[in-house]
From TrEMBL:
<keyword id="KW-0853">WD repeat</keyword>
<dbReference type="Pfam" id="PF00400">
    <property type="entry name" value="WD40"/>
</dbReference>
<feature type="repeat" description="WD">
    <location>
        <begin position="19"/>
        <end position="53"/>
    </location>
</feature>
<dbReference type="InterPro" id="IPR020472">
    <property type="entry name" value="WD40_PAC1"/>
</dbReference>
<protein>
    <submittedName>
        <fullName>Uncharacterized protein</fullName>
    </submittedName>
</protein>
<feature type="repeat" description="WD">
    <location>
        <begin position="247"/>
        <end position="281"/>
    </location>
</feature>
<feature type="repeat" description="WD">
    <location>
        <begin position="108"/>
        <end position="149"/>
    </location>
</feature>
<feature type="repeat" description="WD">
    <location>
        <begin position="66"/>
        <end position="107"/>
    </location>
</feature>
<dbReference type="InterPro" id="IPR015943">
    <property type="entry name" value="WD40/YVTN_repeat-like_dom_sf"/>
</dbReference>
<keyword id="KW-0677">Repeat</keyword>
<dbReference type="InterPro" id="IPR036322">
    <property type="entry name" value="WD40_repeat_dom_sf"/>
</dbReference>
<dbReference type="InterPro" id="IPR001680">
    <property type="entry name" value="WD40_rpt"/>
</dbReference>
Amino acid sequence: MSTLGGAGTPNPNKSFEVVQPPTDSISSLCFSPKGNYLVASSWDNQVRCWEVQKNGQNVGSVPKAVMSHDKPVLCSAWKDDGATVFSGGCDNIVKMWPLASGGQLVNVGAHDAPVKEVAWIPEINLLVSGSWDKTLRYWDLRQQTPVHTQQLPDRCYTLTVKHPLMVVGTADRNLIVFNLQNPQTEFKRISSPLKYQTRCVAAFPDQQGFLVGSIEGRVGVHHLDEAQSSKNFTFKCHREGNDIYSVNSLNFHPVHHTFVTAGSDGAFNFWDKDSKQRLKAMARCNQPIPCSAFNSDGSIYAYAACYDWHKGAENHNPQTAKNFIFLHLPQEAEVKGKPRLNTGRK
């Protein structure tokens, strides 16, 4: 067994293994908003769906469907109906998959370079896609031309939506904030509080700010209101000794509003930004974690363990590297925030 992330076991946290995982590295994970259906996109050009069945403290998975792109798939997202999946990737195409009806794939639209992110925005009934062609495009599913194309300062690496807030992280450490009530205008552009390349962003559940993670094992907590700027801070994570690993994924818990980081060190950690505490550090897998997701009620946390390309194609051996998707059942102590210390101030 190739241990790309170092010594150790593939599944030190005794998580439940998803059956029939992708045959190449996993690029995104997302749960249906309506039920325990998990979708993964992969470098093997496929988008797969499983039904996740939770029975007490046991979890099983049943493969439900698979569809293909012509090239590696980089992103996936559900429509709020829980019946439709969107995906995009290196074929520059945004696709729609009517999963519930077993319908045929539909090309929603196209970019001029790979599609890195997709997100459905139910409040405005539009799909947004972000690409390495330095644009965001908004799609009305009834037409194949974008209803709006938004120029970005550089390639889109990551985006997060919590209506009306959308934050886009691009190359060169740009963070562009949009108010989706007026999506054709940038609300604010800031330079990342982190010194190195942005990997992931996550909007606060209350839309008052966002988290940003970088390749340098650090997370920034940023509030949009200048009056709240004293609450902004950065912290180190996903480091061991002198080894520094990328923060690849940030997810807020849908109920407790704590969050989890996952990194190229193969670990995932639960945090409470309000009390500035780490709630739980999980054991390291022997491969990086490139992506992760909570289900709609936060009772299941899915994470991938596979090669994440940070050492380039020459260090990837598809014959020996196995790709895993694991399901972890978060305990309350891991995800429930701790009361803030009383500082005596009102």
